[in-house]
Design brief:
Length: 192
């Protein structure tokens, strides 16, 4: 007997792109609504951070193909791959970029928007490094979900985690460089 999972298949690049576009529209709406209280730079940064987190989830947790079907539990890995730089990096390409490069690039916007989102106040000196740790935990969480949900037909891989954290750190540094240019602290102060 067919289950709902057999009948309803969701996956593929089109679903990821459509999801990212819908999330982008929601982020634009959020920025427009919150800029009155946060100022334009902070509102765009917060909305951009939220959008990048949703985009990361879409790219990493939506099956790569709609026809994946059911992956039996006994067919899934029991543990994460600790083969750093293993074969998966060369097996997947988009626009001529390998999987490792894509994993790094995927987390760059999150690191950048994180710094700009919390850079409005002095508390950002504490919040930004904590946020970077949270992005590392987010990457770990994604890999653990990929390990547990065989339906995704994804693999938990330490190389992905390292590449994701590297991307977040690169974005973090870019955010620090842009902070004096964007100056989110010039936005409106919330009413007390």
């Amino acid at each position: 007997m067919a289950t709902l999972a057999d009948v309803v298949t969701i996956g593929g690049t089109g679903v990821m792109v459509l999801g990212a576009l819908v999330a982008g529209l929601a982020a634009v709406a959020l920025a427009l609504v919150t800029r009155r209280w946060l100022g334009t730079a902070s509102a765009v940064s917060v909305a951009g951070l939220l959008w990048s987190l949703v985009a990361i989830a879409l790219v990493t947790l939506v099956p790569t193909r709609a026809d994946v079907g059911i992956v039996p539990a006994e067919g899934r890995s029991e543990s994460c791959s600790w083969d750093y730089g293993g074969p998966s990096g060369a097996a997947f390409e988009v626009l001529g970029l390998d999987q490792r490069t894509l994993n790094v690039l995927l987390f760059v916007p999150a690191g950048l928007f994180l710094v700009l989102a919390v850079g409005r106040r002095w508390s950002g000196l504490v919040l930004a490094p904590l946020g970077l740790l949270a992005l590392a935990a987010y990457s770990l969480g994604i890999e653990l979900v990929q390990l547990q949900l065989a339906r995704l037909d994804r693999a938990c891989d330490v190389t992905d985690m390292v590449d994701n954290v590297l991307g977040a750190a690169i974005g973090f540094v870019i955010g620090l460089v842009l902070l004096p240019v964007v100056r989110p602290w010039r936005g409106r102060e919330p009413a007390h």
